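One thing: mind reviewing this one?
=====
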Amino acid sequence: TGVQMCALPIFIFTSGSTQTFTAFSLSGTSGNLVTIGSTTTSQHTLTMATGTVSVSYCTISYSNATGGASWQAYTVNGNVDGGNNTGWLFSAVVAYNGYVGFFSFFQ
């Protein structure tokens, strides 16, 4: 419960619900993005205790990613920040000559 799956690569989670994962992996392709969203304009929560979640070619909206895992949806990997997200990393952290900072990738 809490997730609606369609024939297209669309995952719609019930707004206000929390889904707990031990593993999470999604990958679309260029021109065929996977959609992660909520049933309304309120967030759903995705949680995983440890590890790294790395998705590619996904459009993500109204999603709260929590739980200790690193939720990576870097735009350089074809992902789109559809807005109203928390906990997802859409920009990569890079180091250059000993300096660490955020670098945003533009499409």
